[in-house]
Amino acid sequence: MTHINQPTGFPTTRLRRLRYHSGVRRLVQETIVRPEKLILPLFVRTGQGQRIPIPSMPGNDQLSIDEFVKEVKEIESLGIGGVILFGIPEKKDAIGSDVMSENGIIAEAIKAAKDVVGKDFLVISDVCFCEYTDHGHCGVLRERKGTSMLDVDNDETLRNLVIQTLIQARAGVDMVAPSGMMDGMIAAIRQGFDENGFEHLPIMSYSAKYASSFYGPFRDAAESAPQFGDRRSYQMDPASSAEQALREVELDIAEGADMVMVKPALAYLDIIRMVHERFPGVPLAAYNVSGEFSMVKAAALQGWIDEKRIVLESLTSITRAGASIILTYWAKDVAKWLQ
Ligand code: PBG
Fold first, then answer.
1. Long-range contact list for 75-78, CB < 8 A, 24+ apart?
2. Is ligand 1 within 6 A of the CB of residue 215?
3. Looking at residue 4, what is its pLDDT?
4. Strands 122-127, 175-178: pairing kind
5. Cα(303) to centroid of ligand 1, in Å?
6. Is 218 close to ligand 1, i.e. is its CB under 6 Å away?
7. Strand 61-64 relative to strand 51-53: parallel, antiparallel, unpaired?
8. Averaged pLDDT, 139-145
9. Please, what is the angle between helix 65-77 and helix 105-116, to 10°?
10. CA-CA distances (angstroms) from residue 244 to 1, 252, 271, 275?
11. In which band, very low, low, confident or very high, does the pLDDT at 7 lie, cut at 50, 70 and 90?
């Protein structure tokens, strides 16, 4: 036990002295979750006076625009950083026309939200096609050359992504968040913006987005489950090397992403930490996804866990891993808990 007598060791050093007094504990905290760093995902649909509960995500509803507007005002008043919007269109088709129309659900939702919020509040759009296509894939389908397999055509989807994001820009969106994992999507959207006078609009890329089972409840919420196959030809393989995530992030930054994201959050804290260390200074977001929400919610409703403490601890761990922005379905609860 010779090391005990080192000058810097015990009994000179007692780390418990940092823990006895609650004021000292608070003073030495470094990882602090704040409502203004949170973004709340919202699901918007057509209709009037509609608040349709999402069974697998208790407390979350599909909202018609009038209800959505009320919700956004409340979210703003709670000091939350912003909302990210997902649309459930009246009609889906093969290419997802609704999200490329200025009268589509997302364009209408953006306009309605921007009409009621102040200039500090962010209205962000999730940029993808899976909620708007009848097949539920994230772009235009085509037979992969030399096979009979239908797959998302990367470059044709890029053209539609430019149309989609310009519609959202014209509707007044504050930032776009492309989530479709198409190669070159950031460069295409950036060029589309720059050529049309939107060089000031930032892009938050879902850079390292995994083909995850944790999205299950979301696909109910957004009615966006793929009607055949899966998303493994575009979203990342959970078992791929962590370096591949870094390559995705590096490419997105080179293509003009202003912020990058890792998704899901809790099962990918190592990736969050690596991105944070490799790209210091690049704002990093993490998406605490629907499956992560529903698991905790289900256990909490059973009375098996303390929801508030579990959530605050989880968000603390995501922050400590290196994310400075968190997308979470608990944003409102957290804002109330921290008041
Ligand atoms: C795609 C998108 C998805 C999520 C966010 N954006 C679904 C998917 O990739 O299948 C999932 C979010 C969550 O699970 O909370 N538009």
1. 75/40, 75/331, 75/332, 76/117, 76/118, 76/121, 78/35, 78/331, 78/332, 78/335, 78/336
2. yes
3. 56
4. parallel
5. 28
6. yes
7. antiparallel
8. 95
9. 40
10. 45, 12, 10, 11
11. low
What average pLDDT does the segment 1-27 reach?
85
For residue 290 and ligand 1, the question of a CB distance below 6 A is answered with yes
Nearest to 90 by CA among 74, 73, 103: 103
End-to-end CA gap in the chain: 48
* E strand map for the chain: 38-45, 51-53, 61-64, 82-88, 122-127, 141-143, 150-152, 175-178, 204-209, 259-263, 284-288, 325-328
The residue-averaged pLDDT of 291-318 equals: 98
Each residue of 57-115: pLDDT tens digit?
999 999 999 999 999 999 999 999 999 999 999 999 999 999 999 999 999 999 999 99
Q: How far is the CA of 137 from the CAs of 24, 163, 251, in angstroms?
A: 52, 17, 23
Residue type, 288: N
Q: Parallel, antiparallel, or unpaired: how do β-strands 82-88 and 38-45 relate?
A: parallel
In the predicted structure, residue 126 carries a pLDDT above the cut 60:
yes
Distance 125 CA to ligand 1 centre (A): 12
| Beta-bridge partner residues of 84 | 41, 124
Ligand 1 atom closest to residue 293's alpha carbon, by position in its atom list = 15
Report residue 38 as tokens: 């949170």
* Ligand 1: centre distance to CA 181 (Å): 11
Phi (first) and psi of residue 126, to 5 degrees: -75, 125
User: Residue 247: what pLDDT?
Assistant: 98
Contact 129, 99 (CB under 8 A): yes
| Residue written as token pair 């990058």 | 260
Tell me how far apart the alpha carbons of residues 133 and 227 are, in angstroms, rounded to a whole number. Answer: 10
Rounded Cα distance, 322 and 101, in Å: 37
Mean pLDDT of 305-313: 98
Give the residue, out of 215, 290, 326, with the most ligand 1 atoms within 8 A of its beta carbon, to mutate for a pocket test: 215
